[in-house]
Amino acid sequence: MSKMSHINVIEKYDEHRDAIHHLLSSILSCFADAKMFEQNQQELSEQLKSLCDYYPFISLLYLLDAKGKQISMNVPGSYFKHSPQTGRGFDRSKRPYYLLAANSDSVVITEPYLSSVRRELCLSATIKMNNDDGTTKGYIVLDIDLAATISFLTGDSKRIHFDPYFKAVYSLIVVGLFSVALLLLYLAGKECWEVLQTLLSSEEGKLLPFGVVIYLTLALAIFDLGKTTLEEEVLLYKDILRHSSTRRTITRFIAAIIIAVSIEALLMIFKSALKESGEYIIQAVWIILAAGFLLLCMAVYVYLGSKAEALLLKRKNHKDS
């Protein structure tokens, strides 16, 4: 399963916006101290490290003077050590977080934006610190990794660490499925060559092509299963907390099975027609009925699942309003 795309992150942010803002406001309110403006870079790093032990989604800390000029280097969080320690002397007076904080005495939080340092969606939480005489001493800014914050709030942080292992296992399974599909394609090619060497006018020759079709059908079903597994579990992001993601995966797997079963029924009907004995016609009818029943069950599942999700969304919107 891949990481969240920017669209996924924005959607999740919209769902949990109030909780995220409340959390960040409480963190910065407790963490901010006017003494930080007298601390050196090492002291700031140690102080931020202690905060990151509890809140690992914090990516950067830096200080601004009263005019919005950065007076400290970027202090990276414990899990973002690759971030460059630059920034001192940069003019941040035009940035949204400075403009918002300049007109407020409480914590202000920006809307999501693309970080110029990490190239990931982030939020900036800023608080203005005043001198004893009421003048502005400066601003403390915390940059927050938005995707990591959402994972922290939804209890998904630990599972993310296992994602590479899950992907590796799924990738091995997909390689195995594709290998079997290639083997079946080879057997289909070999069978096709034998058909070309057989007298097609004989009764035996009429049935030989069905061996090729059977190999190709199995290869199609197995390849489609491997492709679905690769897309759903390795390449695409899947929100396991949202029922629509599970419904999408189940629907794709069931659809692949229905296609394979339907083709098998069609082959049995053709065999019966060629033999003119009706030997397989009853079995073919039962397989067609089974495929139709699977299709009906899938339709009911998709319909009920979408209705349930719509009701949950309606209830959530009603609570928010």
UniProtKB/TrEMBL annotation:
<dbReference type="GO" id="GO:0005886">
    <property type="term" value="C:plasma membrane"/>
</dbReference>
<feature type="transmembrane region" description="Helical">
    <location>
        <begin position="250"/>
        <end position="274"/>
    </location>
</feature>
<dbReference type="Pfam" id="PF02743">
    <property type="entry name" value="dCache_1"/>
</dbReference>
<feature type="domain" description="Cache">
    <location>
        <begin position="38"/>
        <end position="148"/>
    </location>
</feature>
<keyword id="KW-1133">Transmembrane helix</keyword>
<feature type="transmembrane region" description="Helical">
    <location>
        <begin position="208"/>
        <end position="230"/>
    </location>
</feature>
<keyword id="KW-0812">Transmembrane</keyword>
<keyword id="KW-1003">Cell membrane</keyword>
<feature type="transmembrane region" description="Helical">
    <location>
        <begin position="168"/>
        <end position="188"/>
    </location>
</feature>
<dbReference type="InterPro" id="IPR029151">
    <property type="entry name" value="Sensor-like_sf"/>
</dbReference>
<dbReference type="InterPro" id="IPR033479">
    <property type="entry name" value="dCache_1"/>
</dbReference>
<keyword id="KW-0472">Membrane</keyword>
<feature type="transmembrane region" description="Helical">
    <location>
        <begin position="280"/>
        <end position="304"/>
    </location>
</feature>
<protein>
    <submittedName>
        <fullName>PDC sensor domain-containing protein</fullName>
    </submittedName>
</protein>
